[in-house]
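Homework help board

Subject: predicted structure for assignment chain

Our instructor gave us this sequence and asked us to write out the predicted structure in token form, then describe one feature. I got the tokens but I'm not sure how to describe them. Can anyone check?
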Amino acid sequence: MFTLITTIISFGFFLCYSTTKRVPVKPILVIEKLNSNHKYTNGLGVFFMSIALSLTIVALGVGNGIFSFIILLMTVASCIVLLYPLNVIKNIHLLIIFCISLGLEML
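My token output:
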């Protein structure tokens, strides 16, 4: 559950992050098509983050869910802001991290 929540938060934040004019967007086919309409992309990013917030509230309760969502959002946002411009993490790395995290969560 938390792997899914973290993935949704990171995708939503990345959508909002990629619409800024200061960030050079790498040629990812889906992101290039979404960036043609900035309002739609920002709305989609906020929608994904609100879904993650509601899932966190359902899993942990109201107070703890909101607090955990804020902590997860700060962690994911700082990782994206620091590592995306450096081209450190590739898609295969994200897939491996997701699979390991999901495997450990299911144990």
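Reply (TA_rk): Your tokens look well-formed. For the description, you could write something like this. The longest helix spans residues 38-60. That's the kind of observation they're looking for.
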